[in-house]
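Instructor's aside before we start: the two examples that follow are unrelated to each other. I chose them only because their records fit on one page, so don't look for a connection. First example below.
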Amino acid sequence: MIKENILALALLFLSLGSCNSTPDNTDPVWGSLDFIDLTGQVMETDSLPLPYRITISTEEKLLFVVNRQGNNNGYIWVFDLVSGNFLKSFLRSGAGPGELLHVGHLQILDQELVVFGTLEKKLLIYDLQGIRAEGLPMPKQVITIKANSVRSPYMINNNLIVDTRFNFKEDSIARLNFYNGEGELVSISGGFPDASADLGPVHLTEAYRCFVGVNAGKVVLTNAYTDLMEIYDEQGNLLEVVNGPDNFEPLMKPRESGGGVMIAPTSETRRAYSFVSVGNDEILSFYSGELNSKSQNNKRRFVLFSSSGEPLKSYNLDIPILHFDVDWESRVVYGVTDEYKDGDNELAVITYKLD
C-alpha cells in the first residue's frame, strides 16, 4: 500500500512540476526592474559568535546577534548599534530558569525584545531598557504556545500572536494560527493556492513552507518553493497575493518516513523567497529563483516591495548574508555573514544602504 501511495504521489508532483518551465539559467526579472549592485560595509564590532540571526533596536541603539552554538557564553550577544562595542551576552543553553535549549528567532516589539524558544514552544519577553543595565537580564514575561506543533510565532501585539499552521486534518486546513496573549489558540485563517488542491494536509505544510514578517498591522508570508508572496491583515484576511517573476510551483517528491509518506524537494525544485522584513510602507525579502540544490542567491539578492506588494527595486549584494534586519528610517540593512574574508576572520556584521 505504501508503494502504491508513493507511486501516486510521484505522478502528482511530476504533473505539478510541469509548471516549472522557466530555464534554470534565467535571472528573475521583476517587470522592468534591473538589479542594483550594493556594496556592503563591514561594521566594526568586538568579536562575534557564530551568527544565526540578527535584530536591531533603533530606539535603544542595540544590535542583537544570536549565537548558533549557545553554550555557556549565551545565545544572545548584545552590541551597541553605533559603536559596535560588545555589551553583554545572556540566555545560556539549558533547561533552567532563563535558559533555552534552542533559539528560533528574535523580534523587537515596541520596547521589548521577544525571543522564541523552539523546543520549549515559548516566547520570552525582555524589557529593552533593562538589557543595558548591569547584570544578566531576565524575562519579564514568558508565554507558552499551547499547540502540538509550533513553527515560528510572531507577536502582532501583546494580546495577539500569529504562526503558520501545521495541518493535520482535512476539515481544519488553514494557513495561519492566531493565539492570544496567554498562548491559547483563538482562530485559524487563510488558504492555499489553487495548485495545492490535491495535496494532503500534512503535505501542504511542507510544500508551502514560508517565512513570516509582521508589522504595521500586516502579516507577510514569503514562500520558499514557489514565487508567491501573501499579505494578510492582523485578523487573517488575505489582502494581496503577489505573483513572482517565474511562476513556478513547489516541485516535491514523496519519501517514506516513519511508516508513512512525506514529501521533500527534488533536484529540480527551485528556491524562491526566504527571510522577510516588513516596514511601515515597504517590504524587503531575499529572493533566488535558482535551483534549490545550487542556489546561493537566497543570500545575495533582495527584492523591495511596496506595502501592497508592488515590486519597486531589486538588489545584488557583493557579500552574502545569512539573515538581516532593517533600519527603515535610515534605510540601512544590517546583516550577519560567515563568508567575509579578512585573514582568518569570516564572521562580520555587514551593512547595506538601500537607495
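Example two begins here.
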Amino acid sequence: MSKAESQADVNQGPAPEPTRLPARGLLLLVLLTLIWGSNWPFAKVAVEEMPVIVMRGYSGTAGGALVLVLAVLAGQSLRLNATEWRWIFPTAFFNATLWLYMSGLSVSYISAGHTAVAAYTMPLWLFLISTVFLRETPSLGKWIGLLLGMGAIAVLFFRNLELAVGDWRGVAAMLVAACSWAVGTVLMKRVPWRAPTLVLVGWQFFLGGIPLTVLAVPAFMSMEPASVLAWSGATYSAFMGVSAAYWLWFKIVDMVPAWVASISVLAVPAVSLVIGAVVLGEPLGWLEILALLLIVGGVSTVLPRPRNDKAVSSR
C-alpha cells in the first residue's frame, strides 16, 4: 500500500456502523419481538395461580443460570474482577430483583398489554435520570419525547381507573420497575466492566433472583398447587423471556448499534397487546392504541442517535 493510500485511509477514519439489519438479523429480531411480546401474557397466566414472588424468584434464578450456561457455551469466562464483584450486587438489585418483583406485581394487577406498554417507559426515565444526576444537556426534542411518554402513562392510569378489572396500582408498580431498570442501566454505563455483557446479565439475574427465591419459600410452601399451564407460563418467562431473549438481543446488538436495536424492538408492546386481547380477552381499544403510539413516539425521540460524522471530523 502506498503512502498516499495509507494517508487516505487515516483521513477516512473508521467505517461507519451499519444501521440496517441483515436478513439473518431481521429473522432474529422477529423472533425476539415475539418472545418478549408473548412473555407478558405468559407471566399473567402464571401470577393468576401462584404468588408473584414465587414466579419471579424462579424466573430470575433459573433464567440467570441458563444465561450463564449460554455464555460458557459461547466460550466466555464467568470470572469477574474485584471491582466488578463490588458493583454486580447493586446492579443485580436494580436490574433483576426490584425489576422482576415490581413488574410481576404490575402484571398481577393489570393486563399484560398495559404492563408491556408501561415497561417501555424505561428509556424516558433513563433520560430523566441522566439529565438530573449525570448533568447531561438534553435537546428540546428529548423533552418532547418525555412529555409524550408522560401522556402515555396518563392514558394508562385513566384506562385502568375506567376498567372494572383495572387497577392504578399496576401502572404505578411498573413505573417503579421501569425506574429501577433505568437506574441499573446508569450503573452499568458508569462502571468499567471488563466481563462480556452476556456474562454480566447472567450474574445479575441469577444473583438478583436469589433473594426473591429465599423470600418465596414460605409462600411456596403454603400456596395451592398451581396448574401445568401456570408453571408453563413461569418457565416460559424464565427460559424464553430471560435466557433466550437476552441471547437474541446481544446477537442483534452485535450486528447494529444498540440505538438501532432499541428502536427495532418497539413493536414488543404491540405484540403483547394483541396476544393479550386474542388469548386472554384483555381490552384493546383506541386508548390502548393511543398509549402505544405515545410510547413509541416518546421513546424513539429520547433514544440516542449516532454522532454526525462531519461534526466529529471538524473538531
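The radius of gyration is 21 Å.
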